[in-house]
Input
Amino acid sequence: MPCYIEHTKDGDTMFLCGDLGPHCAADKCAAVSGWLCDYPVGDGKTCDLPLCGSHAYEVAPNIHYCPGHLTLWSAFRDSGGVKRELENVVPFPHSTTSKS
Ligand SMILES: [Zn+2]
Ligand SMILES: [Zn+2]
Output
C-alpha cells in the first residue's frame, strides 16, 4: 500500500497510507496528487504530470501547470506570448463531452 506525505498549512507533515493514486511528480514531494499538469505538449495531449495542491500552479481557472511548465509558461507570458496565443489558438478543451 503506498504512503504519502502531506504538508499542512502549519508546516507540519502528515502521513497518509492507502490507494490514493499517483504521488505528486514534483521533486522530493510525496504528497497525494489531486491535479494533472494541463500544459499542452502537442497532438492534443497535455503533460499530465500528477501534482499535489501545492505544486499544481493554477494559471487559469481549472488549468494547472507543473513547476517545470510554470517556468516555461512564465517566460512565455513575460515575452508577450500570451496575447498572441489567445488570438491564434482556441483554448484546448479537456473533454469532448460538452460540444457547442
Ligand atoms: Zn507536490
Ligand atoms: Zn507539466
